[in-house]
Amino acid sequence: MAGHIRQEREALARLLDEPRRLGQIEEWITEDHFTVPEHRLLLRGLLASSRSPTTASILDGLPDEETRRLAAELAMTPPTDEAVDQVFLRLEEFRLQRQIQSLRATLGRLEPGADPAGSDSLFEELMRLESQRRRFDDR
């Protein structure tokens, strides 16, 4: 299993284990942090239940049996030794890496000189994302 998928599963398992954390992360965590469609559905269900986060309300709010099965599986998974904050920081790092790769691919496909302002804008965004990602190198 790829590292980012393992990290997604760990983050969801932590949220299922401690639903009160939903209130702490709902301001900044989005579906963009998750690459697996089932993980996105589960996050959506978790966030929808964040007002009354109990295991029962979470499971009741999930869209289908497959997502409920995934939630039950993750809820039974023992947590790793990694600190909770680190789990979510790694999710953010993986999201930034995906955005950087996407922007690089887009810049690579642009015709030289075709849209200098657009290229400059994309390049500035790439530099901003690279700067954010470098913060993780210091950890």
**Uncertain spans:** none
What's the helical proportion of residues? Answer: 55-70%
Order of helices and strands: HHHHHHH
Give the structural class: mainly alpha
Q: N-to-C terminal Cα separation, in Å?
A: 24 Å
Q: Describe the main β-sheet briefly.
A: none
Report the total helices.
7
What best-fitting shape do the alpha-carbon axes yield? Answer: elongated
Q: Roughly how many Å is the radius of gyration? A: 18 Å
State mean pLDDT (0 to 100 scale): 86
**Total count of strands:** 0
Strand content: under 5%
How does this structure look, described?
The protein has 139 residues and is mostly helical. 68% of the residues lie in helices and 0% in strands. It contains seven helices and no strands. α1 runs parallel beside α3 (37-48), α1 runs antiparallel to α6 (84-109) and α3 packs across α5 (65-75). The protein is elongated, with a radius of gyration of 18 Å. The model has no long low-confidence stretch (mean pLDDT 86).
